[in-house]
Amino acid sequence: MSDLANQKRMAAAILKCGVNRVWFDPERQADIEAAISRNDLRELVAEGVIKAHAVKGNSRGRARVRMAKRSYGHRKGPGRRKGAIGARGPGKRMWIGKIRAQRRALRDMREEGTIERGLYRLMYRRASGGQFRSVSHLTAHVETMAGRMK
Protein backbone atom coordinates (compact mmCIF):
# COMPACT_ATOMS: atom_id res chain seq x y z
CA MET A 1 0.00 0.00 0.00
CA SER A 2 1.50 3.28 -1.10
CA ASP A 3 1.37 6.71 0.52
CA LEU A 4 -1.47 8.79 -0.91
CA ALA A 5 -1.16 11.67 1.57
CA ASN A 6 -0.31 14.22 -1.14
CA GLN A 7 -3.24 13.15 -3.30
CA LYS A 8 -5.52 13.24 -0.26
CA ARG A 9 -4.36 16.77 0.61
CA MET A 10 -4.91 18.06 -2.94
CA ALA A 11 -8.28 16.26 -3.22
CA ALA A 12 -9.36 17.94 0.04
CA ALA A 13 -8.47 21.34 -1.43
CA ILE A 14 -10.39 20.53 -4.63
CA LEU A 15 -13.46 19.21 -2.77
CA LYS A 16 -13.27 22.12 -0.27
CA CYS A 17 -13.38 19.81 2.73
CA GLY A 18 -11.04 18.40 5.36
CA VAL A 19 -8.54 15.61 4.67
CA ASN A 20 -10.49 13.20 6.87
CA ARG A 21 -13.61 13.53 4.73
CA VAL A 22 -11.85 12.52 1.48
CA TRP A 23 -12.74 9.02 0.24
CA PHE A 24 -10.72 7.09 -2.33
CA ASP A 25 -12.18 4.14 -4.27
CA PRO A 26 -10.09 1.15 -3.13
CA GLU A 27 -10.43 -0.55 -6.58
CA ARG A 28 -8.89 2.44 -8.36
CA GLN A 29 -5.92 2.98 -6.04
CA ALA A 30 -3.41 2.60 -8.86
CA ASP A 31 -5.08 5.43 -10.84
CA ILE A 32 -5.08 7.68 -7.77
CA GLU A 33 -1.38 6.93 -7.22
CA ALA A 34 -0.65 7.90 -10.83
CA ALA A 35 -2.58 11.19 -10.47
CA ILE A 36 0.08 13.73 -9.52
CA SER A 37 -1.46 16.99 -10.68
CA ARG A 38 -4.58 18.76 -9.48
CA ASN A 39 -6.06 18.35 -12.95
CA ASP A 40 -5.66 14.56 -12.76
CA LEU A 41 -7.39 14.58 -9.39
CA ARG A 42 -10.24 16.78 -10.72
CA GLU A 43 -10.85 14.19 -13.45
CA LEU A 44 -10.97 11.40 -10.84
CA VAL A 45 -13.44 13.47 -8.79
CA ALA A 46 -15.63 13.87 -11.89
CA GLU A 47 -15.51 10.08 -12.45
CA GLY A 48 -16.54 9.47 -8.84
CA VAL A 49 -13.30 7.73 -7.87
CA ILE A 50 -12.66 10.43 -5.26
CA LYS A 51 -15.55 11.70 -3.13
CA ALA A 52 -16.15 13.65 0.06
CA HIS A 53 -17.93 11.90 2.92
CA ALA A 54 -21.10 13.63 4.11
CA VAL A 55 -20.76 15.98 7.06
CA LYS A 56 -21.65 14.27 10.32
CA GLY A 57 -24.06 16.24 12.47
CA ASN A 58 -24.98 15.97 16.12
CA SER A 59 -28.41 14.43 16.63
CA ARG A 60 -30.94 16.74 18.30
CA GLY A 61 -33.24 13.83 19.15
CA ARG A 62 -32.15 13.56 22.79
CA ALA A 63 -32.28 17.36 23.15
CA ARG A 64 -35.87 17.42 21.84
CA VAL A 65 -36.93 14.73 24.33
CA ARG A 66 -35.29 16.71 27.17
CA MET A 67 -36.99 19.95 26.09
CA ALA A 68 -40.37 18.18 25.86
CA LYS A 69 -39.97 16.85 29.40
CA ARG A 70 -38.99 20.29 30.69
CA SER A 71 -42.07 21.80 29.03
CA TYR A 72 -44.26 19.86 31.47
CA GLY A 73 -42.04 20.44 34.49
CA HIS A 74 -39.71 17.44 34.60
CA ARG A 75 -35.93 17.85 35.05
CA LYS A 76 -36.40 21.23 36.70
CA GLY A 77 -35.92 20.26 40.35
CA PRO A 78 -33.74 22.02 42.91
CA GLY A 79 -30.70 19.93 41.94
CA ARG A 80 -30.85 21.35 38.41
CA ARG A 81 -30.98 24.98 39.47
CA LYS A 82 -28.14 27.44 39.75
CA GLY A 83 -28.99 30.98 40.65
CA ALA A 84 -31.82 32.64 42.50
CA ILE A 85 -35.42 32.70 41.28
CA GLY A 86 -34.87 36.26 40.11
CA ALA A 87 -31.90 35.13 38.05
CA ARG A 88 -33.84 32.28 36.42
CA GLY A 89 -36.83 34.46 35.58
CA PRO A 90 -36.91 38.23 36.00
CA GLY A 91 -39.31 39.40 38.71
CA LYS A 92 -41.04 41.83 36.38
CA ARG A 93 -41.85 39.10 33.83
CA MET A 94 -43.26 36.92 36.64
CA TRP A 95 -45.38 39.82 37.88
CA ILE A 96 -46.69 40.54 34.37
CA GLY A 97 -47.74 36.90 33.92
CA LYS A 98 -49.42 36.78 37.31
CA ILE A 99 -51.28 40.11 37.12
CA ARG A 100 -52.53 39.51 33.57
CA ALA A 101 -53.95 36.11 34.61
CA GLN A 102 -55.64 37.64 37.67
CA ARG A 103 -57.13 40.53 35.69
CA ARG A 104 -58.39 38.13 33.03
CA ALA A 105 -60.03 35.97 35.73
CA LEU A 106 -61.66 39.04 37.28
CA ARG A 107 -62.94 40.21 33.88
CA ASP A 108 -64.42 36.76 33.20
CA MET A 109 -66.13 36.71 36.61
CA ARG A 110 -67.63 40.15 36.02
CA GLU A 111 -68.90 39.22 32.53
CA GLU A 112 -70.40 35.92 33.78
CA GLY A 113 -72.13 37.77 36.58
CA THR A 114 -70.30 35.95 39.38
CA ILE A 115 -69.28 39.31 40.86
CA GLU A 116 -70.83 42.78 40.49
CA ARG A 117 -69.00 45.93 39.40
CA GLY A 118 -68.19 47.20 42.89
CA LEU A 119 -66.55 43.97 44.02
CA TYR A 120 -64.72 43.75 40.68
CA ARG A 121 -63.20 47.21 41.22
CA LEU A 122 -62.22 46.38 44.80
CA MET A 123 -60.55 43.10 43.81
CA TYR A 124 -58.88 44.74 40.79
CA ARG A 125 -57.25 47.30 43.07
CA ARG A 126 -56.19 44.64 45.57
CA ALA A 127 -54.69 42.52 42.77
CA SER A 128 -52.79 45.56 41.53
CA GLY A 129 -51.48 46.02 45.06
CA GLY A 130 -50.10 42.48 45.00
CA GLN A 131 -52.43 41.01 47.61
CA PHE A 132 -52.97 37.70 45.77
CA ARG A 133 -50.36 35.02 45.04
CA SER A 134 -52.28 33.43 42.19
CA VAL A 135 -55.62 33.18 40.40
CA SER A 136 -56.75 30.43 42.80
CA HIS A 137 -55.88 32.66 45.77
CA LEU A 138 -57.85 35.47 44.16
CA THR A 139 -60.92 33.31 43.44
CA ALA A 140 -60.90 31.95 47.02
CA HIS A 141 -60.84 35.55 48.27
CA VAL A 142 -63.64 36.56 45.88
CA GLU A 143 -65.85 33.72 47.18
CA THR A 144 -65.42 34.81 50.80
CA MET A 145 -66.06 38.46 49.88
CA ALA A 146 -69.14 37.57 47.81
CA GLY A 147 -70.49 35.62 50.79
CA ARG A 148 -69.97 38.62 53.07
CA MET A 149 -71.59 41.10 50.70
CA LYS A 150 -74.84 39.10 50.39
Provide an overview of this structure:
It is built from eight helices and two strands, in the order αβααβααααα. Helix content is 61%, strand content 4%. Helix 1 crosses helix 3 (38-47) and helix 6 (91-112) runs antiparallel to helix 7. The chain is rod-shaped, with a radius of gyration of 34 Å. The mean pLDDT is 94. It has two domains: 5-52, 50s Ribosomal Protein L19e, Chain O, domain 1, CATH 1.10.1650.10; 63-149, Orthogonal Bundle (Non-ribosomal Peptide Synthetase Peptidyl Carrier Protein, Chain A). The chain is mainly alpha-helical and 150 residues long. The termini are far apart. The chain has a two-stranded antiparallel ribbon with strand order 1-2.
Q: Indicate the CATH class of the largest domain.
A: Mainly Alpha
Distance linking N and C termini = 98 Å
Strand content: under 5%
Q: Count of helical segments? A: 8
Number of strands: 2
Strand order of the largest sheet: 1-2
* Principal-axes shape call: rod-shaped
Largest sheet: 2 strands, antiparallel
Low-confidence parts lasting 5 or more residues at pLDDT below 50? none
Fraction of residues in helices?
55-70%
Radius of gyration: 34 Å
Number of domains: 2
Helix and strand composition category: mainly alpha
Looking at the overall shape, the CATH architecture of the largest domain is Orthogonal Bundle
